Amino acid sequence: MNIYDIIKQQEEKENKEVIIVRNGRFYQAYNAGAFALGHLRGYKVKKKQMHDGTTYYRAGFPCQVLNSILEQVKKEGGEVVHSEPDGSKVIIKGVDTTESEKLIAIDDPSLMVEPRKVRQKVKAIKSDIEQIIIDYDIANKTPMECMTFLNNLRNYIIDVRNKRNEKATDGGAEGDTAEATLSDSETGTMG
């Protein structure tokens, strides 16, 4: 089930029922579902953009938190309408799904990018990597975004090392000045 399908199904039910889907070690909800999680748990809602430019909202949480969220849904007067036996999808209703500006996370402006922007060249020296880490606003990111950021940073460092080694074997530049590219998605922004 893709994001379009989830949002469409929710809208068909006038956003009175929201769908939460498992994606790896996390559950995610979109649009009305994201705001439901924001109201229930105070989770920040991220504004995202699909490949075609369509804007949507997303919120997520680790799988081990699902039961406490479902308990809170019941305490708030909501109910679990459906739950897949394998835990891949949960549908809830009776919760507040209204959009609220105060629930939307404000991303770090240094990491904001235009959708599908062309890869930018970055000097791969230690201070650049340190600055990328320092500038990453971990306090306003979901656990999944942080894990993605770390994985992409690791891949970036490996890429830099490989390019540096290639240049060194070709009699090229010094090790600390090798150039590599770090795409926008690799800096932790998801688009």
What is the element layout, followed by pairings?
Blueprint: H1 3-12, E1 17-23, E2 26-30, H2 32-41, E3 46-49, E4 55-62, H3 66-75, E5 79-83, E6 89-93, E7 120-123, H4 126-135, H5 143-169, E8 179-182
Antiparallel strand pairs: 1-2, 1-6, 2-4, 3-4, 5-6, 7-8
Task: Report on this structure.
The chain has 191 residues and is of the alpha+beta class. The chain has five helices and eight strands, in the order αββαββαβββααβ. The protein has helices at residues 3-12, 32-41, 66-75, 126-135, 143-169, and strands at residues 17-23, 26-30, 46-49, 55-62, 79-83, 89-93, 120-123, 179-182. The strands form two sheets. The protein has a six-stranded antiparallel beta sheet with strand order 3-4-2-1-6-5, sandwiched between helices. The longest helix has 27 residues, at 143-169. The radius of gyration is 20 Å and the shape is elongated. The two termini are 19 Å apart. Residues 108-125, 173-181 and 183-191 have low confidence and may be disordered.
Give a short overview.
The chain has helices spanning about 5-10, 30-40, 65-75, 125-135, 145-170, and strands at about 15-25, 25-30, 45-50, 55-60, 80-85, 90-95, 120-125, 180. The protein is of the alpha+beta class and about 190 residues long. The strands form two sheets. Strands 3-4-2-1-6-5 form a six-stranded antiparallel beta sheet, with helices on both faces. It has a two-stranded antiparallel sheet with strand order 7-8.
